[in-house]
Amino acid sequence: MAKKSKDARIQVIMECTEHKNSGMPGTSRYITTKNKKNTPERLELKKFNPILKKMTVHREIK
Predict the structure, then answer these.
(1) What is the C-alpha separation between 13 and 9, in angstroms, rounded?
(2) Would you say residue 3 lies in a domain?
(3) Is residue 2 part of a domain?
(4) What average pLDDT does the segment 3-14 reach?
(5) Domain total of the chain
(6) Is 1 a domain residue?
(7) By residue range, what is the domain housing residue 20?
(8) Exposure string over 20-42, b if 16+ CB within 10 A, otherwise e
(9) Per-residue 3-state assignment (H helix, E strand, C coil) for 11-34
(10) Is residue 4 included in any domain, yes or no?
């Protein structure tokens, strides 16, 4: 059996961009994984923000 190489999959934190700009208290964050070899740039997904009660763009933070 071949030895497993270094994992390309890493965990990233997604944070809502609309909520950050609105000035409301609290944050909407999600944790997901991505393959850093296939997507080296920052990830951007539409996710549900429970505080604003709508779908918003969530961007990867460091």
Answers:
(1) 13
(2) no
(3) no
(4) 82
(5) 1
(6) no
(7) 9-61
(8) eeeeeeeebeeeeebeeeeeeee
(9) EEEEEEHHHHHHCCCCCCEEEEEE
(10) no
